[in-house]
C-alpha cells in the first residue's frame, strides 16, 4: 500500500505532449481551445482544426472521415505521432458514435474512447470495429505511461454546460493541490463488485482523508472534497441530481452509471432523476444522473459513459483514486482504471491536471 501511495515518478507532464482538437464549425470549440492553449502554453503546432458536425451523435463514417482522419493527418504533418500522449477534445466535437443503418458493423462507442486507438491505427494495427477492446494501460499501477509500451493516446474532453464551467476546470487544473477529503459512497452494505472496488479504493488512499459510508445514507453537503466515487443514480436511495458538495480545485468524480456522459447539454433546471419506467421524465434518452452536474457543481474532472458499458466497463475507483492521489495526471489515473477502449467511456478535464 505504501508503494502505491508514494509520489509517482513524473514523466509525461508537459504541454507539448498535448494535441488540442478544435471543431472549426463550433464557436464554443474555438473559444475553449484557444483558452486552454493559452493557459497551458500548448504549442500552436499542437492545435488540430477539424471540420466536423456539431451534433453530439454521429454515425461511424462521419467519425472516420471528419474526426479520425484529420486528427491522424495533424499528427503526421507535425511528426507528433510519438510525442503526443494526450488528446484534448473540445466542446463542439461530437461525443457519441451511434450504430448506422448501412448494414456494416458499426456499434456504438464514445468518440473519445475510439480515438484512443488512433496510435495503433497509425502503426498499421487493424482493430475491429466491434468493441470493447482491452485497454493495455488498465491496471498498470507501477508503469509510467509512454510509447510504444502503451500503444494508445489518452483522450480527455473539455466539456460542460457552459463556457464558464469549461474555463473553470482549466483554471482549476493549474490550482490543484493534494489536500481535502476522499468521499466514497457505497450502495448499501452488499457484496457487489462495485462495492468491493469502492471498499478497496478506501484502503488504498490516505486513511485520515477518507469519508466512506456503506449505509443507505447518501453522502452530501461535505466540505473540501478532492475525490468522489459512488453508484450515482444507481443507488436507489439517491433522489437528487446534485449533492451540494464543496469541491476543491483539482477534484474528480466517478460513478457506476450507464449513461451519465450521454450529453453535455443542460437539462431544464427543474429536471430530476427518475425511475426507468417514467419515460416522460427522461432527459436525453435516460433518467440517470449526469456527469456534467458534477462539473457544474464545482468538480474539476469526472468520468462518464455515453451508453451502457456494463459495470465491468466502468472506471475502477480502486485504480483511479489511488493513482490520482499519488500524483498521476488526471488522464493517466482514469485510463489506468478504464478496462476497455472502443467503448463507452469519456473523461472530462485537463489531462495534465495532477495534485501537487
Count of discrete structural domains: 2
What is the percentage of strand-forming residues? 15-25%
Mean pLDDT over all positions: 94
DSSP strand tally: 15
Radius of gyration based on Cα positions = 19 Å
Number of helices: 10
Largest sheet: 6 strands, mixed
Order of helices and strands: HEHEEHEEEHHEEHEHEEEHEHHEE
List low-pLDDT spans.
Answer: none
Helix percentage range: 25-40%
Shape: globular
Report the end-to-end length measured between terminal Cα atoms: 20 Å
What is the spatial order of strands in the main beta sheet? 10-9-11-12-13-15
Q: In terms of structural class, how would the helical and strand content be classed?
A: alpha/beta
Amino acid at each position: 500500500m505504501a508503494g502505491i501511495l508514494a509520489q509517482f515518478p513524473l514523466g509525461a507532464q508537459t504541454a507539448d505532449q498535448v494535441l488540442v482538437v478544435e471543431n472549426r464549425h463550433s464557436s464554443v470549440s474555438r473559444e475553449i481551445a484557444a483558452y486552454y492553449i493559452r493557459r497551458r502554453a500548448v504549442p500552436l503546432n499542437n492545435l488540430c482544426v477539424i471540420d466536423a458536425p456539431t451534433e453530439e451523435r454521429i454515425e461511424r463514417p462521419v467519425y472516420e472521415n471528419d474526426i479520425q482522419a484529420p486528427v491522424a493527418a495533424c499528427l503526421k504533418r507535425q511528426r507528433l505521432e510519438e510525442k503526443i500522449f494526450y488528446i484534448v477534445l473540445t466542446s463542439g466535437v461530437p461525443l457519441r458514435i451511434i450504430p448506422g443503418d448501412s448494414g456494416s458493423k458499426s456499434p456504438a462507442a464514445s468518440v473519445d474512447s475510439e480515438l484512443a486507438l488512433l496510435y495503433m491505427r497509425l502503426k498499421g494495427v487493424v482493430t475491429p470495429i466491434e468493441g470493447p477492446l482491452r485497454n493495455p494501460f488498465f491496471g498498470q499501477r507501477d508503469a509510467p505511461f509512454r510509447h510504444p509500451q502503451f500503444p494508445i493516446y489518452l483522450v480527455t474532453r473539455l466539456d460542460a454546460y457552459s463556457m464558464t464551467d469549461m474555463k473553470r476546470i482549466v483554471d482549476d487544473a493549474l490550482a490543484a493541490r493534494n489536500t481535502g477529503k476522499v468521499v466514497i459512497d457505497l450502495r448499501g452494505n452488499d457484496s457487489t463488485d462495485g462495492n468491493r472496488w469502492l471498499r478497496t479504493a478506501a484502503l488504498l488512499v490516505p486513511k485520515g482523508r477518507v469519508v466512506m459510508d456503506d449505509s443507505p445514507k447518501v453522502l452530501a453537503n461535505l466540505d473540501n472534497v478532492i475525490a468522489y466515487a459512488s453508484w450515482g443514480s444507481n443507488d436507489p436511495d439517491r433522489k437528487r441530481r446534485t449533492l451540494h458538495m464543496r469541491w476543491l480545485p483539482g477534484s474528480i468524480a466517478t460513478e457506476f452509471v450507464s449513461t451519465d456522459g450521454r450529453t453535455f447539454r443542460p437539462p431544464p433546471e427543474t429536471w430530476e432523476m427518475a425511475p426507468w419506467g417514467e419515460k416522460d421524465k427522461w432527459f436525453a434518452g435516460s433518467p440517470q444522473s449526469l456527469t456534467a452536474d458534477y462539473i457544474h457543481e464545482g468538480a474539476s474532472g469526472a468520468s462518464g459513459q455515453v451508453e451502457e458499458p456494463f459495470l465491468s466497463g466502468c472506471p475502477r475507483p480502486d485504480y483511479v483514486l489511488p493513482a490520482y492521489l499519488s500524483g498521476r495526471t488526471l488522464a493517466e489515473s482514469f485510463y489506468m482504471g478504464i478496462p476497455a477502449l472502443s467503448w463507452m467511456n469519456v473523461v472530462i478535464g485537463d489531462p495534465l491536471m495532477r495534485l501537487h
